[in-house]
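Ops channel
N.P.: pipeline sanity check, posting one input/output pair.
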């Protein structure tokens, strides 16, 4: 994905979720906000807004770790 597009999407998602992490429901500082896929791209998820949620750094790292240890 183009970098500029990803940035704009993050802004949209951040506004949509009102700055709340979708996983732990904690407020996420704007500079620590990251996108997370509900259905991972590996499993056929898309980059569409409907498949992307706001995640704090901690949750994103945790989920990435789980994804890595998942048998494929
Ligand atoms: Zn979180």
């Amino acid at each position: 994905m183009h970098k500029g597009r990803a940035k704009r999407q993050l802004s949209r998602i951040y506004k949509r979720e009102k700055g709340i992490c979708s996983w732990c429901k904690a407020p996420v500082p704007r500079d620590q906000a990251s996108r997370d896929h509900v259905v991972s791209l590996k499993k056929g998820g898309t980059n569409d807004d409907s498949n992307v949620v706001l995640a704090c750094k901690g949750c994103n790292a945790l989920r990435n770790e789980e994804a890595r240890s998942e048998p494929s």
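N.P.: looks fine end to end. The first helix runs from residue 3 to 16.
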